[in-house]
């Protein structure tokens, strides 16, 4: 099932420099630094008017593929705060940590395995207390001496209730998965689902990352899109695991990510998370290298087994076909909402030369584009044209995101819509008043067709349905 791994050097990223995306994102209102007028807060980003549309569309596309179109998967939306014991049972209090080193002179802190010179290290190397001396690692900023690595727990803590004491500590969840596990029994009993079945969830997670960065790739507050598939132990899990790999890869491709910039990477045995029997990542060729987009994990009976043991509540499943009773195993697909949106944004970017001028296009799949249609008047001073534009936009907006813009000449308006990935522009001109027709312009081909005003919406809706596949 695993495809051959392309040579990383042979595949160029969609943009050579991440700054191109960061500056477009800021300028056009996709993503802003959080609390910017206060100087910002590290590793938190806010989505602007276009970014929120893009991310909502990504989440909707995921929900469609993972819940709506599947008879065997249902959704939940669990709380971010959970009983603190959940995180002890899940192993996060004990082992959800990264190796941290600190510079003795500037006090900067780094995740050991992200320092230059550690690219080839195995997990055994990373656990070696002598590793900093062995590799003669120094602070990348001022060359200062680095401390030996220590484990740093990534969970954010806060207090529940009016007293800030040890007994009141709760955690901001570092993954959505546990909210699905603790609801396994509720969901199974309320839906009467038979195995195999899945629980899907989209929501915020929080990790006090030691070295966040690369824009929205690694943040301290982010969104996950996770699905837990409950299956028969052993072979049942192995089969489901193999089935989910190509499905998840196909999802990114279906929404337009260049296939050559996607690959699978299997985790080495010493790299596996505390819960995983097997893990394969879907990786994307970002401007800063091949990085994880999504993890597919065979978690065995780690989760339900441990929760059952900790609570005394039976989480066993009675299989009516074989009359066996067992604790289901779990195959998880764990994706990031922000990372996926970032990937679609980056991969959609292209620059072209049109009649001697540079044209920037975000070639989004129409389903993901923030605006589906822009309605543009050829002459903004003509009230009759403007009125028709507003009437058309209002009608389109009942079903899809449609925007009106008259702040520049038509050529410039088209370019602006290209740059934010709007698949279709509709222009209403003086002739429209006579013949009742409008021009639809396609973002990618720049082809223009003249159609009856009454046909604009059906044509756009039909093209949109096609993009959905
Ligand atoms: P990494 O190795 O990059 O730290 P991970 O293996 O810890 O990631 P998982 O725990 O498998 O990641 O999380 C599942 C998904 O959640 C990731 O594939 C990613 O898309 C998303 N994710 C995890 N951490 C972050 C983060 N700090 N910022 C944004 N997205 C994240």
Can you walk through the features of this model?
With 469 residues, the protein is an alpha+beta fold. It contains 15 helices and 23 strands. The chain has helices at 18-28, 49-68, 84-89, 92-95, 123-127, 131-134, 177-181, 184-191, 235-254, 302-311, 337-348, 383-396, 410-420, 430-435, 453-468; strands spanning 31-33, 45-47, 73-75, 97-102, 109-111, 150-153, 156-159, 169-172, 197-206, 221-231, 262-266, 278-286, 289-300, 317-319, 324-326, 329-336, 349-354, 357-362, 373-377, 402-404, 424-428, 437-442, 448-452. It has a seven-stranded mixed sheet with strand order 3-9-10-16-13-12-11. The chain has a five-stranded mixed sheet with strand order 20-19-21-22-23, sandwiched between helices. A hairpin with a 6-residue loop joins strand 4 (97-102) and strand 5. The radius of gyration is 25 Å and the shape is globular. It binds adenosine-5'-triphosphate. Adenosine-5'-triphosphate binds next to strand 10, strand 13, strand 16 and helix 11.
Topology:
Layout: H1 18-28, E1 31-33, E2 45-47, H2 49-68, E3 73-75, H3 84-89, H4 92-95, E4 97-102, E5 109-111, H5 123-127, H6 131-134, E6 150-153, E7 156-159, E8 169-172, H7 177-181, H8 184-191, E9 197-206, E10 221-231, H9 235-254, E11 262-266, E12 278-286, E13 289-300, H10 302-311, E14 317-319, E15 324-326, E16 329-336, H11 337-348, E17 349-354, E18 357-362, E19 373-377, H12 383-396, E20 402-404, H13 410-420, E21 424-428, H14 430-435, E22 437-442, E23 448-452, H15 453-468
Parallel strand pairs: 3-9, 19-20, 19-21
Antiparallel strand pairs: 1-2, 4-5, 4-6, 7-8, 9-10, 10-16, 11-12, 12-13, 13-16, 14-15, 17-18, 21-22, 22-23
Bound molecules: adenosine-5'-triphosphate (ATP).
The site of adenosine-5'-triphosphate has 16 residues, from strand 10, strand 13, strand 16 and helix 11.
